[in-house]
Amino acid sequence: MSVLKAELKQLVTTEVGVRVEDALEEAKRGLAIFEGRQIAMMDGAKSVEALIGVVDEELKSEKFDLEAAAHIKRYLTRSSTALQNLAQQAANLRMAQSGKIQGFEQTVALLKNMVDAERTKVEALREAEAAPPPQSPAERVLGARPMSIKEMRLAEDAVPVPPAPATAPEVVQAVVSMPMPPPVVTPAEEAVPLPVVRKRGRPKRVSNA
Predict the structure, then answer these.
(1) Can you tell me the distance from the alpha carbon of 120 to that of 118, in angstroms, rounded to the nearest whole number?
(2) Global pTM?
């Protein structure tokens, strides 16, 4: 991987991480809203339930009759139940928002690790490019950029060639001027006659004309 590609990947991952962090902050604000809504609805339900006791006291003081008190208490009970339902809805939204925040936090941590890994890779590639070319492929470091054709050729030229073994001039001259011995023919080879080749087919007719 080239340095440019690694830097581009790092920049893209950083930009995505910034967007996810913004979404995380927005989710945290939403969580605070749901928490406040739940607390407010629960406090409202308790306040309405407290009014039922006030109705009972005023009924005893005969400020209104029993039928009116029953209607008032019925509507106060409905109001308290409605506020409790709204508090439960806020609690459900709060739990969902907490899960969303946890997912955003895990995503931010993952992207941060990716950015750190790409930053380390960029530094390693820059060090590899700044370093002189190795003398042989065995000296290369794993993970560095591949050798170019020119670097491979320079590395091959740098390998020393062992000199050929020295030969004495008089030995070479004696070997060159030495006459070749005649071929040796054994008696068994002289006694073996050559095979006679016979022609196949009918002999030609000889005419006396």
Answers:
(1) 5
(2) 0.52
**Domain containing residue 106:** 3-132
Alpha-carbon distance of 120 to 114, in angstroms, equals 10
Structurally, the chain folds into a number of domains equal to 1
CATH code (residue 78): 1.10.287
Is residue 172 very low, low, confident or very high in pLDDT (cuts 50, 70, 90)? very low
C-alpha dist (Å) from residue 28 to 31, 39, 54: 5, 17, 40
Q: Is 23 exposed, middle or buried (0-12, 13-18, 19+ CB in 10 A)?
A: middle
Q: Residue 55: which pLDDT band, with cuts at 50, 70 and 90?
A: confident
Specify if 173 maps to a domain: no
Q: Give residue 60's pLDDT.
A: 83
Residues in the chain: 209
For residues 100-108, give the mean pLDDT.
91
Task: DSSP letter for 139, please.
Answer: G
pLDDT, residue 133, reads 60
Decide if 56 is inside a domain: yes
Q: Does 140 fall in a domain?
A: no
Q: ∠ at Cα 101 (34, 25), nearest 5°?
A: 80
Within-domain flag for 174: no
